[in-house]
Each structure stands twice: as structure tokens, then as C-alpha cells.
Amino acid sequence: IAATQLSTNWHLKENARDHHTSKFSSKELIVRRGQAFIVTFNGTEQPEQNLTFIAETGPKPSKLAKTQATFGISSTVSKDSWSAVLQSTSSNSVSISISSPCNAVIGRYKLSVQSTSTGSSSPASLGTFVLLFNPWSSGDDVFMPNEAECEEYVLEEFGIIFGGNKNHINSFGWNFGQFQGDILNICLSMLDRSLNYRKDPATDVSHRNDPKYLGRVLSAMVNANDDEGVVLGNWSGSYEGGKNPSSWTGSGEILQNWKKSGFKPVRYGQCWVFAAVLTTVLRCLGIPTRTITNFSSAHDADGNLRVDEFYDASGTHLDMAADSIWNFHVWNESWFSRSDLGPSYSGWQVLDATPQEESGGIYQCGPASRNAIKEGDVDLDYDCPFVFAEVNADCMYWNYDPATGKKTLIFSQSTTVGQFISTKAVGRDDRVDVTNDYKYEEGSAKERDIFKKARKKLGLEDKFDPTAPTQQEIDQKPDISGKFKVADPLQVGKDLNLVLFLANLQSDVKIVHVNMTAWSTVYTRRPVHEIWKDSISVTLSPKEEKQFPITIPYSDYQQQLTTDNTIQVTALCHVEGGIPVLVQRAVTLDNPAIDIQVLGEAKVNKEVDVEVIFTNPIDTEVMDCVLQVEGNDLLRGILEINIPPLKASEKSSTKFKLIPFETGPKHLLVNFSCNKFAGIKTFKMVNVID
């Protein structure tokens, strides 16, 4: 071999088609492990049987660590090692089919070739290629037998994420964009910036054949804690110095910004942002991944499978416990086998990149086998107790007197947490409920047995817990019941109308003193501002039910509302001669609607006009209006349009042009923000034709 750099034809188009990597827009070969690819090169004068190939990755390639392979030409493909099979030769070029084992380390490889006959010649470089996980290959840990699921969970760049609360589920589109521009390189540099890599690069790279390992490392790298990772979390309700978490529309902008800033954490994220970025990175690397939303999600900080909430006598939710119940929380599921736990724990695995609790000293979470969560096997790796609590914790509501430090149990509930667990349907823009994959039916004997089993495994059954309520406290029965009902659809800009229903459950008269409060909160139910308070005294005849309408005018809440549009309404009912009763409801207000119209047919490489229409629903002017538009294969990058201020009830129409560059169904995502609203989102499916 004369030259040290041979001229190589990587057959990019054919290899990409065979390896499901055509969506990457790269000049470099990107292939999947456990599957053959073709490469042709010239400049060799040697007979082909004298050729030896070297594939190597990482800073210190070694055969022992499986980060280097040398292999000659053989007549057949070997299952568990690298191999090369001759395809054809001509006077000065050779075509070879190269196969990697289905458990090869993923990442960027250098490929070189050496002639064995001369012995001393140094290897000639053929160039580099990137090797990814292969869900289409039955030997791979991430093998997914269902073709439609591979399409959705690896190749689909558009997603739908669910939010709101259990009474009112809403959804928004997200552009994962895992095949765009430089995203693959950014994903690879995330791996090279992890704490594990910094500590011991060669060992870290040698573990990159294992989706469990990579999932865990990346769950740490997506948040900024510990390692200057991608996104900085902020749940304060104030987002100075960064972007409001509600206004992002896709992961591409976040990952690009992280790289552009010299890898400084991007401000700001909340749970769905962490989950969406992790989805992008894992799909990009070839691990099937989806986002999951859990409604009434427990954050059990002290690991006792119990969440304690405290209220003072006026009904104000006191922010004094590390535990909390979020209106919703978004995490990930990735699909791979668990050789460490056994086949019954393979399949969907929970990963969570939101920094909530440390695991192994850093903010990372998972992979926790979803089957282990359902069966209460909380002693299995990784972080099963935390995830189990997110969907199963019991809730204790306490009345707390700050003056004396005395707390009395109001009531406890075992069915509140973990409801309507949701993900996007395969191949459709619909919600699918997966609650039954996380737990047995709420209230069933089996569900309580699993909960006891989990408590036992965590050693909670046998040890005395001085903070726990007594059985006597748990068994006490209230004299009245209450609930809040929402009178009409709740929209930002409109007055908030609720009705408090109180019912006397006893056959004697009850006198009730009701203290009511309404607070604006972030979606984690962390109180931000008090909006309203009131108190009433009520006499209920035996078995009587009464209703009390409540109106909170927009003018009272508009200054206090955070961009989560969430208000927590609480009534603490003090019953004379009985135990207090807590009535509460999380209210999520809908943003005003925004409408997209595509004016005409969308054709490849032809301009098409799009109109976005928004009407200001409130009686004050809105300013700093910005429209943000993105959509894979419809426009490159992100379009930002500044819109002049809109007076009360004024309608704005904004037009822009698209030049689509691929055929097929594409999603256009729009986000409108101004000084009064952050994330008014919508998306539209645009069918692009030839």
C-alpha cells in the first residue's frame, strides 16, 4: 500500500438506506452495529488476501477493551467479531463488506488498512465512520421487533408531550430533530464531557456498547448539575437571564446553543425540556426512546414512599417539606434488554434527566425497569425506589401550627399519585394511557400487596417511624365532604369561576368554618403568589349539601399568574367538634388559541405562504410579541418574527414563506410569546408533495 491516505468510496447512499440512517445530513458514513456496510478503496497493489483492517475508537484503542479490532479478509461474516468479506476487485480498487459485532462499542471509528506481506508498512487511513445502536438487528440489546415502533421511537423527529393536570390534560408538539445538522456530533461530545469520561476516558469508551450505561450517563449529562451539562433547571417562576422553559419548541436550538456557548449550560429547563433533550440524544444514537408524562407525580425526597404536605389554619399550603406532588412530571422510557437483571425485566426502562435527587452522588436517574416498578421489585438497579414512589407514594395532609410546631393529620390518600400516565401513540398524534404498565389497578388487593412488598424490601415495614401518623389518626372519619367544581372552561384573561360543594355526612347539624385561599404556582405546585383569600361560616343540616360559587376576577390574578397558568385553590374546613377537612384543586388555565393556515399546496423547493393568526384575549395591551417557527424539512433553523404590540382584543395576522425540501408529512411548530403569555403553542401537519 503506497499512499497513507487512500481514496475511499463509502457508498453513503446505499449504506445509509440499508442502515436506516438516510435522515442524517452528513458527509460521513453513519451505520448501525451488527450489520454489514460496503466500502471501496483504491491504491493497493497487494493481493487482497494480504490486507488487514484496523477499526478503532476512543483515546486509547485496545483489543482488550474492545475499542480496537484488527481483521483480515474472510469468506463469511463472523457473528461476534469484526469481519471483512471481499465483494469485488478491479485492477486498482477493492470493494469490501465490513461487519461489526452486535455488541460493538458505538461512536466514531477510524478505519485503516495494512498490507501483511511487507510486514513493516504503516497502516493507510481509509477515513472515519460513526457506529450506532441497531434496533433492527435481533442480536442487539436495543432490538425492537415491531417495525412501526422502530419508526416512531428512533426515526420520528416530531413528538407530542402532555402536561396540565389530571383534571385537564393538555399537549404540545416538540421537534426532537435528532437528524439535524450537527446534532450527532453534539451527542458524541456529550459523552466525552461526562464525569466518567473525564475520570477515565479509556474505561468509559469501553462501556459504550451498553445502553444501560449510556442511558445513565446521559441522564446526568442532560442536566447542568455536577458536570456543566446541557440544560440548567429553574422552577422559580422568574426566568431572567435565560429563556422561559415554556417557550422552547425543540431540542435542536438547545443543543446547538450549548455547543455554541463553549458548552455552558443553556438557561432554562423544566422536566419536559430535560426529557425531550434526552429523547433527542438517545434516538440519535439509536436507542428507542419516548417521553412519558405522569400526572400527580410524587417527589419522595426521604425515601419513605410517603409524601407529606402541610397546611396552616388559614388553608395556605406551607412550602416546608422536601416532599411534593407535582401536577405532572415528564421522564423517558428507553427500550433495551437487562442482562444484569434477567429477561423478565427487559423492555421499557425509565430514565429521568430532571435533577431531583442524587443517585450515586450525582443527579442522574435510571435505568429502572418498568416491569420491576410494576412488581414492586424496588431493590433492583437503578433508582427503582424513587420511580416507584413517583407513581405509588401515599399522601398525608397535615394541619400545622407554626406557633406550637404541632401537626395533626387531616387525612391520608393512597390513590392520588400516579394517574393518566401518558405517551404519544405510534404513528398517530394521539395520547395513549400506559398507567396499567406501571401498576396494578388502583384500589385493588394486588396493588396494595405490591405496595407492602415494596415497603418491606425498603425496610419500612419493620422500623418505627416517629413522623408517621398513628393508625387511629388514619382511621378517623370526617363529618363532612367537599369538592371544588369548575364552572366553565378556564382561560387566561377570563374570570375564574368555581363552585365549592360541601355535604354533611352525619345525621346531626354541623357548623363549619371554611378558610379559602388561591395561590399561583408553578406546575410542581410550588406556591409563588397569593391571589385571593376568603372565609365563610356554614351551617349544614343533617345530610344537607350546599354549594358556594366563587369568582376570582382576571384583574386579581393576572399579575400573579406564572407562565405555567396554574392556580391552586384550597379550602380548609374546620368542623366544630370534628376533624378538619381539606378540599383542594389544581386549576390549569388554557392559553388563548393561535391558528396556522397554509395558503396553497406545499411542494418541494417551491415557496408556499403560511399565515399565523392570534387575537389578544385580554383587556390590556400585550408587548414584546415574538413568533417562533420551526419544522424539519420545511425550513432550516428557527424563524423568529417580532410582532408589534397588540391592543386589547386586537387580532394580528403574520405571514411568512416556507420552501420545503423533502416530501411527505411534516410538522410545522409555532410558539407565540409576549409579556403576558409565554408558551402559546400549536402545530400543523403539512403534507409536502413533489
TrEMBL record:
Domain Transglutaminase-like: 263-355
Residues that coordinate or bind Ca(2+): N392, D394, E442, E447
Co-factor remark: Binds 1 Ca(2+) ion per subunit.
Molecular function as annotated in GO: metal ion binding; protein-glutamine gamma-glutamyltransferase activity
Record field: catalytic activity: L-glutaminyl-[protein] + L-lysyl-[protein] = [protein]-L-lysyl-N(6)-5-L-glutamyl-[protein] + NH4(+)
Residue stretches spanning the membrane: none
EC numbers for this chain: 2.3.2.13
Transferase found in the keyword field: yes
Residues the record marks as active site: C271, H329, D352
UniProtKB keywords: Acyltransferase, Calcium, Metal-binding, Transferase
Domain of life: Eukaryota
Similarity section: Belongs to the transglutaminase superfamily. Transglutaminase family.
Name of the molecule in the record: protein-glutamine gamma-glutamyltransferase
Organism field: Bucorvus abyssinicus
UniProt lineage: Eukaryota, Metazoa, Chordata, Craniata, Vertebrata
Gene transcribed to yield this protein: Tgm3_0
